[in-house]
Structure prediction request, 111 residues.
Amino acid sequence: MMPANWVWMATGRDPAADLRGTYDTQAGAQRTLLANGGMKTLWADLAGRAGLRPVEGYARGDVGVIRAQVSARRVSDVGAVYLGNLLWATVGQGGGILALRVDRPLAWTFQ
Prediction:
């Protein structure tokens, strides 16, 4: 939800309004992702709802889907916000913010 929160704050449009409160566990989040076609498909839909457009050259504040180490044994697609210099911010396993260097994520802009 972190990138959806960012889009909501930046644009006043909450692309994930219908998903909020529908799950409260990691398993529930996984079920929601699967029901919506996975992270990339879900974010393509969320970006469209918010009026964002796909982008290949990123600007600070753009949102995207990156591949990240989400636990000691698992790599997964996660939502992220672009910080600049190929750094993307996402929420880590313990709830803290991670800044990861990623090249060529799937991304959208509202700028």
